[in-house]
Amino acid sequence: MNVEKLSVSLPKELVQELNKFMEENAIGDRSKIFQIALRNFLDENEKDDTVVYGIINVVYDEHEASRMFLELQHEYLDRIISTMHLHLNERDCMEAIAVRGTRSELVNLNSKLSQIRGVKKSRLLISYEVR
Ligand code: NI
């Protein structure tokens, strides 16, 4: 593998947390963890025309977010394949939204979802690239 060495600055607490995790899980290769984290970050944020399948995982406050949340899903109806809804407690809900579209479209949808008031978390997992 062709590698390049980088020097990065991180908050001390984050490094301590990482070191503790590596120790507890007997992981010796810090570079591997950064590679995985960066790959996930780029998958979630890179924009291109590759058609992909993925899952958007959203946790939201039903009272605050429901209307906007549904409107946005209707706007993207031809990108959404299926949705699973779970009631977490009296107010909070989780949805796993299976999606298909270009990486750009799905990154934009995830970004819009995460900006809705009452949405606590929205993550896009790219599962498969159509080639
Ligand atoms: Ni619910």
What does the secondary structure layout of this molecule look like, with pairings?
Blueprint: H1 12-24, H2 30-45, E1 51-61, H3 62-75, E2 80-87, E3 92-102, H4 103-115, E4 119-129
The site of nickel (II) ion has 4 residues, from strand 2.
Describe this structure in words.
The chain has 131 residues and is an alpha+beta fold. The chain folds into 2 domains: 12-45; 51-129, 2-Layer Sandwich (Alpha-Beta Plaits). The chain is 43% helix and 31% strand. The chain contains 4 helices and 4 strands, in the order ααβαββαβ. It has helices at residues 12-24, 30-45, 62-75, 103-115; strands spanning 51-61, 80-87, 92-102, 119-129. It has a 4-stranded antiparallel β-sheet with strand order 2-3-1-4. β2 and β3 form a beta hairpin. It is globular and about 45 Å long. The two termini are 24 Å apart. The mean pLDDT is 93. The site of nickel (II) ion has 4 residues, from β2. Nickel (II) ion (NI) is lined by residues 62, 85, 87, 93.
